[in-house]
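Exercise 7. Given the components listed, write out the predicted structure of the assembled complex. Treat all entries as one system.
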Amino acid sequence: MANIKLELVNLRKEFGDLVAVDDVSIAIEESETMALLGPSGCGKSTILNMIVGLEAPTSGDILIDGKSVLNVPPGDRNIGLVFQDYAVFTHMTVRSNLAYGLKVRKMKQPEIDREIAKVSEFLSITHQLDRKPDELGASELQRVAIGRTLVTNPEILLLDEPLSNLEAAMRNQMRRELRRIQADTGQTIIYVTHDQIEALSLAHRIAVMDFGALQQYDTAHNVYQYPANRFVGSFLGNPPMNFLKGKLAEDGGRRVVTSGDSTIPLPAGNLGSDVSAGADVVVGVRPESLSLAAADDPGRFSVPVLAVEPQGPETVVTASFGDSSLKVIVPTGDPAVERDSIDLVPVSDLVALFDAESGVRLLDSGDRR
Ligand code: ATP
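Answer.
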């Protein structure tokens, strides 16, 4: 296992009665990108501020390279911070902006010139070095902001919603750029976002937060395919995960969930010992994790069709499962869809089972990576 670069240990922050960060523990490996993901108000900025040193934790610890930094002033933590509003000095040229952090560190001019040349080439802003920020577009400004930080060679790069002020096309381009920066520099990166697509496309590991509490910390693959609870399942994915209410049952030695006339088979796996047949449960299954079943498919189940909406090459079929509705994406024009009901089959083991009340995952199954 690689070295742990940053570790949050039972990190907690209270503002009066409000618990903004609720005993969060996360270890981030060197050269890894970790995305802190969650809805507005879940505690992302508070965690960030504690890592940087702008906010003191109520309890818990923050370790960089195994040493507590709680008593290290913000300026000495060697953490590079890039915000969404590209904090660049508007009265200075791009070159002076890039030089700023190095001058503060009393680096000699020839060395500053060398570092600026390296970073500006890396970020494709060499031709803009003598321009002022007001002559630059949004994505160029963000490159300058990233450059200003990268040039100081931080231990950890913190990116706080860095792409949220960019238009969609620019966001995609900057995402590619960030992936390249990450691969070429081996920087340890913490990426704060409420955008699940950004987290899934950039991060090795994702920490999903809600109401100050860590809901799941795992690889992007596992967080998406094996959500630890219903919140994580619902927060990631578009179109969203289907949630099918029903009761746990057994059918011919196989675990199933039933509701009304509908029955869906569950994958094999360990079920919590206190869960038994008849329990109220919720099945979580993504639209792309179901496909049309062949006639002899042993895992097939049938559901009544409510609506069929062709969308170019794919068609979204809305069906019902007891009282719940179920969306599935199928190839347009498949004759199996031109009927009142369709036969579906889960793709591999990507069917999650949650407790109906707590929303916690019950069935431990799958190919985790
Ligand atoms: P956003 O994406 O909107 O910035 P966030 O996930 O970063 O949200 P935080 O800003 O960390 O969330 O806020 C977490 C909770 O703590 C919120 O309920 C917020 O209102 C509260 N909070 C944050 N800072 C303070 C403060 N200085 N005093 C009191 N409450 C605060």
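Discussion: The longest helix spans residues 168-185. The radius of gyration is 25 Å.
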